[in-house]
């Protein structure tokens, strides 16, 4: 669905490579000691550490409608297309700062996420920008909404609703984001140890937020700090497990009873009483530790 002019969609000027710093050094979070680094319009002072952010795959739940190889075969610089309806929320694949590029040639409305290590991620053919230039975002923050309907504002030359995703390395070369994620497995969410110790913590809640992002309309950051929006999404998800109360983001006994019903399919054998103890959390964590929620 995505036919691009190779010169039309790179998304603005390329950030210069950082002299003297290997990718390995950046991954280790080494401090930059020469010159200020500008990332998405935000200047970082010399001496600040710039560790590579974790990059994950936000679109695993959508079908690939155009592969990297198919893009190259038709003269594009590369990308991956995911079939999704117009207006779908687009979570940031990693932390960074936002740059919006309206009517970016054949790519149409493009949002660029400038990561702290000089890499960039770009989403093309958007129907709507949501954040201002220079906004700092965490992984999972919704940065725009998908588009791509033929002839619609922001669609560029797209012939049907979808999202195009690619990354750009510090040298300005477009790269396959799925290859990047595969080669940097730390970009996915780690498994939660709650499965073993029954004690929920930030990783458990991050996995819960990512599950709810994929399945139940959660649009906040995947930051491991659940709030009203996280719990409202949890209540929506629990409709399938007998929850009939309000979607108010304030979990009570009935919300947690539904969670225990879910956990009963993952090894929890205790009472469905709405009191989450270690065994309830272990079962819920086994569910959250599925690879599909990484």
Question: In percent terms, what proportion of residues is strand?
Answer: 15-25%
Helical percent range? 10-25%
The chain-level structural class is alpha+beta
**Series of H and E elements:** HEEEHEEEEEEEEEEHHHHHH
Can you walk me through this structure?
With 294 residues, the chain is α+β, with helices and mostly antiparallel strands. 23% of the residues lie in helices and 17% in strands. It is built from eight helices and 13 strands. It has helices spanning 23-27, 68-73, 177-183, 194-197, 202-215, 228-237, 253-263, 278-288; strands spanning 37-39, 42-44, 64-66, 80-82, 89-91, 96-101, 110-114, 120-124, 126-129, 136-137, 142-146, 163-168, 174-175. Helix 5 (202-215) crosses helix 6 (228-237) and helix 7 (253-263) crosses helix 8 (278-288). The radius of gyration is 20 Å and the shape is elongated. 44% of the residues are buried. The model is unreliable at 2-50 (pLDDT under 50).
Short note summarizing the structure:
The protein is an alpha+beta fold. The chain has helices spanning 23-27, 68-73, 177-183, 194-197, 202-215, 228-237, 253-263, 278-288, and strands spanning 37-39, 42-44, 64-66, 80-82, 89-91, 96-101, 110-114, 120-124, 126-129, 136-137, 142-146, 163-168, 174-175. The longest helix is centred in the C-terminal third of the chain and has 14 residues, at 202-215.
